[in-house]
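Listing S7. Sequence submitted for prediction.
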Amino acid sequence: MLHEFREFADAESLASAAADVITDLGRRRIGEHGVFNLAVSGGRTPSTMLRDLAQRDLDWACVRVFQVDERIAAPGGPERNLTALRDAMTDTAPTIMAMPVNDVDLEAAAERYASMLPARFDLVHLGLGPDGHTASLVPGDPDLEVTDRLVAISGPYQGTRRMTLTYRALARADEILWLVSGADKRVALAQLRSGDVTIPAGRVEAARSLIMADRSASA
């Protein structure tokens, strides 16, 4: 997959510019179709981006926010992506489509979440781990080979299992927005940009891909 690439001086300017991209696309899609289907990942820099985004002039009643992935952990905890997402969006009113990770039957919950996904995402935001993972598609996990489901449950990774969109679901994106920050991402970012399919992130396919990175990650 070919990637457009933009570099920024630091994580703060990166987050602000990403919020600009999302706002501009959201306004266009709402004007065209009356709804903006956005999927977001968790993380430190995305949290800053979401706080910036929440201050933008957007018709939030027409925005549906889906989760790309979520840790299977207690509700409201700091490790949950949903906690940061809801905190950032406190003063806005999008429809947040939360992953049901606290259901007893996780496989059934994954199927139920898959049934809620749109036929196309207007934009999917992804991060990039130092090991080349994205979403909760991590090196060596069986979910990397899932082709018959849109949502899957991962094995243990950094102490928790996760619910995640699969490659098949990510391929529904009209655009992928990669947000990459930090010197520990340099090697993985170079691999992603070169199309290295040996890392999980390198196997993502979508109609269009924009990588936005700060200088420390792209140096």
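Caption to Listing S7: primary sequence and predicted structure tokens for the chain studied. The chain has seven helices and ten strands. The mean pLDDT is 96.
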